[in-house]
Amino acid sequence: MESLVPENLTASFPWLTALVVVAALGAVALWCLPRGARGRVREIALGVSLVNVGLLVGAFTQFDTSKAGVHQLYEQYAWIPQIGTSYAVGVDGLGLALVALGVGLVPIVILAAWREQGDDVERLRHYLALVLLTAAFMTLIFAARDVFLFYVVFEAMLIPIYFMIGAFGGPQRRGAAVKFLLFSLAGGLVMLVAVIALFLQGPGGAEGFLTANLTGLALTTNVERLLFVGFFLAFAIKAPMFPVHTWLPDAAQQAPAGTSTLLVGVLDKVGTFGMLTLCIPLFPSASAWAAPTIVVLAVVSVIYGALLALGQKDLMRLIAYTSVSHFGVMILGIFAFSQTSIAGASFYMLGHGLATGLLFLTAGMVIARHPQRSQRIADFGGLQRTTPIIAGIFLLGGLATLSLPGLAPFVGEIMVLIGAFGAYPAAVIVSAVVVVLAALYILLTYQRMFTGPEQEHLTGLPDMVGREKWVVAPLVAALLVLGFYPRPALDLVEAPADVTVSTIALEGSAS
Amino acid sequence: MTPLIAAAPQFVQPEIWWTWLAPYLLVLGAAVVGVLVEAFVAPRARRSTQLTLALVALLGAAGWNVWLWVDQFAPTEFKAIALVNGSLMVSYFTLALQTVILVVAALALLVVADRSRGADDFAPTAAAIPGSDYEELARTKGLQQTEIYPLFLFAVGGMMLFPAAGNLLTMFIALEILSLPLYVMSGMARHRRLLSQEASLKYFLLGAFSSAFFLMGMALVYGYAGTINLWAITNGHALQVPEALVGGRPLLVMGVVMLLVGVLFKVGAVPFHQWTPDVYQGAPTSITGFMAACTKAAAFGAVIRIVVWFAPFIGLDLHEEIQVTIVIVAIASMLLGSVLGVVQHDVKRLLAYSSIAHAGFVLVAVAGVLPYDGQTFVFPMNSAVIFYLLAYGLATVGAFAVVRLVRESQGRGADAVTLGEATHLSQWAGLGRRSPFLAVAFSVFLLSFAGIPLTAGFIGKFTAFKVAVDGGLWWLAVLAVLCSAIAVFFYVRIIVLMFFVDPAADDTEPEPAREVVAVGALGATSDAPVGTPLAGEPEAGVGLRLSDELRRTSGGVTVLKGSVGSRVAIAVAMVGTLLLGVLPGPVLDLLEKTVNFLP
After folding, report:
1. Which of A185, A195, A199, A237 to mutate to test the interface with B (most CBs of B within 10 A)?
2. pTM of the model
3. Residues of the domain holding A461
4. pLDDT single digits (tens) A277-317
5. By the number of CB atoms within 10 A of the CB, which of A185, A319, A452, B315 ranks highest?
6. According to DSSP H, which parts of A255-380 are helical?
7. What is the pLDDT of residue B215?
8. What does the alpha-carbon distance between residue B131 and residue B124 come to, in Å, rounded to a whole number?
9. Looking at chain B, which residue has its C-alpha nearest residue A247?
């Protein structure tokens, strides 16, 4: 068993902690900003997020890609030794990739929110502070190597998101925020029981919550299955997977585009990330036991999300439902347990984050141009002529989400489908057909909104301005680069996938 | 000084008794001096004298306790120090819990003492008939009822004795010492005085009822064991069970259950909770905060004492009966508190139901008591319960301190008159914009009640539920978690109201609310009969529909600044709640000492 839990490589400089601390201090600074300096909140927030990008580059230079399956940049301090928790952070290739996705999206979201609150700098200040706080939690959760720390961040993260939806969203935002919170909390609390129960099964002591100390426990079958379900439920809600996905469309519809980008692009990945880094390594045989059921639910998610997306009248809800469908593909890849499918699912998490982010942000730009800020697809038409750049980028984002070859999500999706075919051919065939059909919902939407006769009230809208180009440019570039040259990112996620597969395989041979 | 009465041979007799009795004497002595201050000090200087005296007594006793803990406590094999022939038994548990009570009480005192403009909670003379000319005269003369300070100290003295009681009679006396001043203080609200007096009477009658239960239980236990000393009952049994008593076991079971009824009443656990919402709502809000936080802490000290001294010992073998009782009460409290909390529209009643639920959560830890294996004393619940009570106490005192600053008002500008608290939830809409500090502080307290990570409440729930799981009651922990999830709904609803709902426009002239009779006499609006739900139907998601009528009354809401003292109390409670949530290590470390000792 020891061979599966390789020694962590300790960090020479606390890169990960620095990423967390800088973002959190940035949020606090924005809240405490003296009245005179409040005109510059945007610049300060953007500056903080760019410092973080710099730190991220530093972290990459210290990360040894040839050992991507090992947790690196590792730091560990006693936090509350009385209940066995440590502050332990470290990332393997997958963790680093997701940290990078989060850190990279933050400046883009800040830039996209530049004019979102009009001239109300006060509101913007609170919004940007919440974005930075969320950024701190995002880094921490993908780096947490202590189950308790992971849980704490998992729950604490809900608070800024809750305010970001509930205070800054559309007309039904309060209901959406409460629904989001209650769903997530319900999952989280069930996970809490599992966390405590898992701790009691482990070695205990002052470091009893370290993920490494809880891996490879000899659990009885029933206990392991119960614990697995406890963890999985929380992640399935987060991911979100059918039938516990219903909070997402509401949240995405009501939240501002930037919030949806972070929420769907990064935070929902906590669900799939948790399945990969906690559910499977901690409970390998229960994972194998549950896999067929989960695969069925995943395929249902794929079909269900796609069908509902087809029927949506609201642009943001549509994007949310496409994500439900795509998360189904990721979960299918994870629980097919082949190296290719897991690496593919990991890569797809990145690609999907970029593609959905681009789609949400571009949709946000379109909506901001509507005189009534309508989100209804039917309220648009013929925008291709007035705003050709937006139309083009929207189409690109749409095609990326449906995995057009040459764009990043394609690589992940094809790997999932190939990797999963051996174990679940029927599921793969169904998913592949649905994914192809999914072209409909993007193309039909594009057709309704951007082609055809121009609607009267939409004439003379401005096309993408300079700032907005900066918002989409990095995303487009990343989608193209990873689409044509995915190797560097694959190097990061393949080794962790190997570790996961060998965990399952070892368990299979032992039992 | 001759030693009082020789302690039983099992207990090491401390050399200087007064050292150990000093904290009680300090607090109760200060209370007695406080009564004299009423008689001999000029009215103008009374309040400051009383306040200084009370604060010095509370903090002095707390400091003394710390010194005892650090320097004086020499654990014996029975791990408790018996004073006055075992009437009092002091252990690490006692010292820790007393210190928690004293510190929280000191914070509560700062809130009680708030007499800043419009923020006085207490009637000018509580004896005046509501609405009478005499009352009006007292009000215009600016009289103050400074007797609350000695009353407060007497109550604290009783609370300190509660977890120190070594025999049932001391416990009963402690119960009465802490209760009687509370009955009086509950009836002293400045606004809505009828409601307050009703609360006081209800509290008194039901409290007397529960005292009677306690006494009956004591009689039954005495009838069985022939003694009321805890150590004599349990240790006598550990050695041998007299033949004659074997058949009397039902007597003992009945007795212990009745004792539990008496103390669980003070805790406010279901089914002994009926007084809680009415008394919490009617009592002056600063007293409610004190009562909710400190009484609960003290009473849990007594609950644990009874449970641990009767449950785990082999000779008595009451483990199963007591555990079943506690489990049933815990489940009922959690469910009822959480579910009924959802439908409350009054902040004080909502916090009352929340306190019922919290009583249930603490009982979940208490239920995890393990049978004594005959070799080692291990009581993991000791530390968990004390931590929970500290977390809950801080948040409660802070929350009620915020509640009392949100007031209804009448008139505008310089003529504005502050009335009673604006406790209807709809009046809290938009507090986040009106008064960000209070709204943020209140949110922190609510999140701590809800048990969200990075607040003290989370660590409290975590340690408490862990004890239950350790004790084999994992299903109870699951139930507790589900109840927490229900309770989150109503805490979050208030946060939604404060931050996401726009306040009714301030520029509309607030209509003089219909119930206003005389300012300062009957108090302000919403004197609706207790229990009558005010308008406001749940709306999907948020839960409160602001009907036009309520919007109108919410036009007249002002937020007082409060005195420096009460703002300090709120800030300390907030910082403490966050600090205990992020870095609870040192406190848990200290409390760890209580685990291996009898409470």
Report:
1. A185
2. 0.85
3. 2-510
4. 888 888 888 888 998 999 999 999 999 988 888 888 888 88
5. A319
6. 257-260, 269-274, 280-282, 284-311, 315-334, 339-369
7. 95
8. 12
9. B541
